[in-house]
Amino acid sequence: MAAKSTIKTLPPELLEQLQDWLRDPCITQLEATERLNELLAEIDEAPRSKSAVNRYAVQMNEIGAKIQQSREMADMWIGKFGNAPQGKVGQMLNEMIRNLAFNTTIDLAEQEAPIPPKIIKELAWALEKLENSSTINEKRQREIEKAILEKAADETEKAIVEAGLSADTANEIKKKILGL
Asked: Is the pLDDT of residue 114 over 60?
């Protein structure tokens, strides 16, 4: 197993400062490394290598690219479903998270090292929350559909009575619309 990154062992305020420098297009990695090592010298900490900073920058860029890609995908799909009921967007997002959980589980299972119980617990917890939210979304969608149907049935009943049919006939038609 690889050793922990020397960059990730930095004090939080220095790690945050390094991240700011790495995001700044006016500062090169070499300059960021030099600035970091100057601050580390002031607190009597060992300097970090250029390659450690580079590896960390590459990881940051990869994560940033994945975040950007997921935002673009979300924008695309929400743009497509923007006028659709919220339930459809919620279903799509739940399915995306399910796929992420599945892929994560596969990746973990393929590792040679045993999977830490904490990760298994957190994944199970996340899946439980996902299923609960899915159930809530489905229930909400059914309630919305029922309310729409009831409103349509009421309006139909009113229109039938206004057209001159009996209230009993209108009520029978309403029951059929509602499936009663």
From this structure: yes
Global confidence as pTM: 0.46
Burial of 172: CB neighbours in 10 Å, binned 0-12, 13-18, 19+: middle
Q: Residue 124 — pLDDT band, cuts 50, 70, 90? A: confident
Position 92 pLDDT exceeds 80: no
* Side-chain-facing half-sphere of 112: CA atoms under 13 Å: 1
For 52, residues 6+ apart whose C-beta sits below 8 A from its C-beta are 5, 6, 7
**Which alpha helices (DSSP H) does the chain contain, by range?**
12-23, 29-42, 50-81, 86-110, 117-162, 167-178
> For tokens 């062992």, what's the residue?
9
- Coil, strand or helix at 115: coil
